[in-house]
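Example with several molecule types.
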Amino acid sequence: MAPRSKKIVDATSSPISMADLARELGVSMTTISRALSDHHSIGPATKQKVLKLAKKLNYQPNHLAAALRKGQSKLIGVIVPYIEGRFFATVVHGIETAASKAGFNVIICQSSEDVAQERKNVETLLSAQVAGILVSLSRDTNDFRHFEKVRKRGIPLVFFDRVLESDTVNAVVLNDYDGGYQVTRHLLEQGCRRIGHFAGPQHLNIYRNRRQGYLDALESYNLPLDEQRIVYSDMTLEDGSEGMRQLLALPDGGVDAVFSAGDTAVLGALQFLKSKQVAVPQQVALAGFSNEAFTAITEPMLTSVDQRCEEMGQAAVRLFLELVESQDSAFLQRQVILQPRLFIRESSLQGTPSLDTLSKQATKIPC
Amino acid sequence: MAPRSKKIVDATSSPISMADLARELGVSMTTISRALSDHHSIGPATKQKVLKLAKKLNYQPNHLAAALRKGQSKLIGVIVPYIEGRFFATVVHGIETAASKAGFNVIICQSSEDVAQERKNVETLLSAQVAGILVSLSRDTNDFRHFEKVRKRGIPLVFFDRVLESDTVNAVVLNDYDGGYQVTRHLLEQGCRRIGHFAGPQHLNIYRNRRQGYLDALESYNLPLDEQRIVYSDMTLEDGSEGMRQLLALPDGGVDAVFSAGDTAVLGALQFLKSKQVAVPQQVALAGFSNEAFTAITEPMLTSVDQRCEEMGQAAVRLFLELVESQDSAFLQRQVILQPRLFIRESSLQGTPSLDTLSKQATKIPC
DNA sequence: GCGGTGTATGCAAACGTTTGCATATATTGC
DNA sequence: GCAATATATGCAAACGTTTGCATACACCGC
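Resulting structure tokens for the full complex:
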């Protein structure tokens, strides 16, 4: 019987290893290894010889073996609630690009907004011996032991966007508060005074902060808090439509603007208003959050806060790299806060819009 | 001097290995390994003991070591031109979900539509010892040697969406021809007879096939080919707008419908028509390709062909798994062809639309 | 002529698994 | 009672790197 290792199909030639190079050149594997990793103690002549042969034989290093020996792989684990959808896809794009530049590969996992799955993801990534983990929490994560394990192992852990309620972690977040503040100020400057708000689940930091920005902006104009004007929901299209209905039906004559903590909900509101022949922005101005692609397509186009998705991904990787460098990463706890950017479009421009600034921002579909 | 292995910060306790378990239970590592992998020759009592201890000590297997020994990792490499954007993000979602179910992790790489980068991605993935590679070609890949290398190594290779012009590969593709045919037939059934077409770059199989479907549908109605009604472009928003201008200006009175091989271009056309007060669909019906999220948001909503992104990802993984199973994968060359699905919306419904079927498909935002 | 330093190379032991080839006992069939 | 089979376990060699600790030679300064 033929030995098992000899395949019937001979197309699968085994890749060549450092041992092969060493044998060919009559030197030790040490020399090969050092030549390839540009060690100082290898003579230029030897180094050249090795590199040339490696290229000629098309040598491919086995990262696995190296990682095993060094206890340090070139893999970064990323956990997101889901990958489809503009925000996370773009963050992941930023992560992959930055990681690749630093010589790291990216493993993605999806928690599907499920804590149990998230826990499993963490275990998987640890088993894969990743050099670090970047994670955006699932919607209802409230048990953090699985992350303790990561820290115990001394593996850099960076949160982004959806973070732990604690300042003892490394995190990259958007200044959601400022986003809420900016957009509300903008609505106020347009002359709106009865501004409603679609608020998301308040156990999530992002929605809480957006709401607080809204409130503080109102206060800066000496407008009192009116809880009636705040609608809490899961921010779906239907929630937006229904929320708009509620706000219009308020006893004091409704609202003249709405700041929604999400774009999908504000789209629902827009559709509702159009179906009721309410003019946007003349009768009710609208503004959302996330700068989804469709905000530049609706009629009128929707004002929204951009979340700097790509920058967030890059920043997360940068932070990870810093942690890898510093030997006492267990102590380093850094927070990176990104400034959001307001995209002003038709839906919030009362009076005569400055068409110059408008068109520039509006025509670019953020896809 | 303290030994190097002993860290100053003791927080980083080294993870426990099979050797630890073996010592603790007084058995050999073989037994541990076999118990954990459910080998038949391990007694149920021993198996239980091992599993219990493993759970108690929170043992995490080192995939790297296993992969090194077995020469087979649990990693799938995925190369896409870019990850942001609905199509690829959703495909990757499908891939990750299916791969995860089968116990595989996914490494993503972006070629950024650049052949050189794509080549690099392949090398990287081979170095990472992936069990297989799934790839959607960069826009201008025309040199295939880097893929030959993959096959030489006996590593399963599956193309999806953008594939090689050859039937000696494993591939998952959409039936673009049928998509073009379906949508054109639909326009014909609506009574349109002067149907224009926005065609993409003809060196890409997908655009060529969509165009052919369009032509054959016309022929099925005994309508002659009129090259004047076909506008070739890169399918951007501006291309769509400009293309629409051209088609309206045709000597024979313009067109009464346009099938665009991409949604972005059809959006441009819609914007142009609205600016010229041309009624859609009454005067000109529109239909696109890709079923982008915004097609359900525009007014009127846009008819489009759905590409089954998620199914494509799943199918690619299924195909990969089949290749892994079959030992002579080098010979197996399978093509999976997915059927596109036409989403009929307002932009193409002449006369009295059947509101029942319409609303069901239209309200769901494919996000 | 000796310690110091810089250059150039090799030996062999790790890293944590998996697995072919033993070994040992118990059970079964004839 | 003996071969065949099933059950249960262990030894030790792989897998392809990296690296601490040698070894060896050359040159320099004193």
